[in-house]
């Protein structure tokens, strides 16, 4: 089996806590470790937050406030994403976003990204799937908390616009006994002739990302943070600088060490073979 290096997506998501400087620091970190893309999330809170939840009081990274005010505070707008776009272009790293509603898709189209992401929560949102397909932008979709029938319908609905389909489990962080990594093989068998199969990680352990590479996942997506002790709902399920560096080192070693499946004597074995081979040909 041949192996190709997966596309590496560092998910900043909402770990920026509404702070553009923090977001740019994470972009710089991702670029320095060799990620191909950083990813954000884009929502219209007025659409995505249920009316029953909008005025509920929450303790947030900004202190106590209504849930709708918190969600607005966390959202980057055009000014911030213009700067993110310019900064990524300067560093030479790609970026895109998960879109949670039609307004957010329309917003992202203006940046002409390589991809838009349909998050697991939106797999059954046919209006959003339609809009993503019609946008002409390649689609990445996660399959967390989705039944096979729901994934079947979404894959059929997206058609040729679907570029990557990612196995994920939508709990943060995901317990080891619910990782179900063999689902990658199922997705490859069911949909591998229609799109590329990848993996989106929500576990605190690096091993599953390494396993996904060996299972020939074509895209790796994982949340990143500068410090897992920072405030925020996703920080603990994210990978910090030390883990990020170690992961990229593992991926590089896997690619170098995979080889070509040939049988024979390696260059470094020739001298030791002469010394130790007891029975000569």
What does this 3D model show about the protein?
The chain is α/β, with parallel strands linked by helices and 281 residues long. The chain has a single domain (7-276), classed as Alpha-Beta Barrel (TIM Barrel). The protein contains 12 helices and 10 strands. The protein has helices at 20-33, 45-48, 51-54, 67-74, 78-91, 102-109, 126-135, 148-158, 183-191, 207-214, 241-257, 270-276; strands at residues 7-13, 37-42, 57-60, 63-66, 94-99, 115-118, 138-142, 162-167, 196-201, 219-223. The strands form 2 sheets. It has an 8-stranded parallel sheet with strand order 5-2-1-10-9-8-7-6. Strands 3-4 form a two-stranded antiparallel sheet. Helix 1 runs parallel beside helix 5 and helix 10 packs parallel to helix 11. The radius of gyration is 21 Å and the shape is globular.
CATH homologous superfamily classification? Aldolase class I
Q: Residue share in helices?
A: 40-55%
If you consult CATH, what is the topology?
TIM Barrel
Tell me what portion of residues adopts beta-strand conformation: 15-25%
Strand elements, count:
10
- Main β-sheet description: 8 strands, parallel
Total separate domains = 1
Mean pLDDT: 93
Q: Count of helices?
A: 12
Radius of gyration: 21 Å
- Find the structural class using helix and strand composition: alpha/beta
**What's the architecture in CATH terms?**
Alpha-Beta Barrel
CATH class: Alpha Beta
Strand order of the largest sheet: 5-2-1-10-9-8-7-6
Distance between the termini: 31 Å
Shape, principal axes of CA atoms: globular
Q: Which runs of at least 5 residues are low in confidence (pLDDT < 50)? A: none
